[in-house]
Amino acid sequence: MLETLLLNPIAFNLGPITVHWYGVILGLAALAGLALVVREGKRFGISPDFFMDLLLFGVPSAVIVARIYFVAFKWEDYKGDLLSVFYIWEGGIAIYGALIGAFACGIIYSRYKGYSFLRIADICAPGLIIGQLIGRWGNFVNQEAYGGPVQESFLRNDLHLPSWIVNQMNVEGVFHHPTFLYESLWNVVGLAILLVLRRQKFLIAGELLGFYFMWYALGRFYIEGLRTDSLAFSGPSWLASFMNGLWSPMKSLGFQAGYLNGLEGNVRISQLISVALLLITLIIIVVRRVTGSSNIKYLDPIVSTKASKIKDEPQGAA
Prior knowledge:
One of its GO terms (biological process) is lipoprotein biosynthetic process. It is a multi-pass membrane protein. The chain crosses the membrane at residues 20-38, 50-73, 85-109, 116-134, 179-197, 204-223, 269-287. One of its GO terms (molecular function) is phosphatidylglycerol-prolipoprotein diacylglyceryl transferase activity. Strands 1-2 form a two-stranded antiparallel ribbon. Strands 3-4 form a two-stranded antiparallel ribbon. It has a two-stranded antiparallel ribbon with strand order 5-6. It contains 12 helices and 6 strands. It has helices at 21-43, 48-73, 75-78, 95-112, 117-141, 152-158, 163-168, 179-197, 207-224, 237-252, 269-291, 305-312; strands at residues 10-14, 17-20, 170-171, 174-175, 232-233, 267-268. Residues 310-318 have low confidence and may be disordered. It has one domain.
């Protein structure tokens, strides 16, 4: 039996309260993203309080919708123990569900404050991607969201990973692709590109968010194909063949697709969403550019319509 030294998913205990590394890492991810967003917001004269309040509303919204999204596709695993639906520290939240929750909250809160949602979302895009690249390490600690089996030598000699990562990729005696690491590193590169793009004069409002969508969707599509825990549904055979065809470049590089339970479906949901998100975003960017429907640049000032109304109101007598 191969012996390994696994990480303890519990960070510490505060009396009867158990604090898991998963929650700690997600918290650090949110704070890192907030710090980056607040700094950029100051360049546009937006108060840090706006983004702090947005985080306070956005994180619960993201977590709740992400959990609902995951449980909805894994209902058979939860219907016998409804209380386990709330055990988010054990993992089981879907990133696309989190994005839906966060963006729904962002749209509502931005409009409430009188800001254009696209302008605020542009500012938040680098914060989202840095939150994701840190948050994936919560999956690492929980030994989840990993890929198919690999040889230990691949992790040590080909990827040159340290032992503390290699050991954690040993699940019940079988080593697996560290897909959490692949996605995290992909997001590091994406973050660097976003930080460069947002200083370019040609960038139109909404396009930084669009690039974030396309970059994340592209990486997620190919990395998702390696995973063994993908949410799936039963689609037409042509759609499954189309998805497999798009993923075929990975096979030519020597990768094998991760296990997909045929009883759950033949199409990975995250892959389908990734393709749709990438294409829709690309089309919107091209159409906006060709038609000139938006002439507002990312670097243009951001003004709240509600702030303007307050400024225009006549002042009462003292």
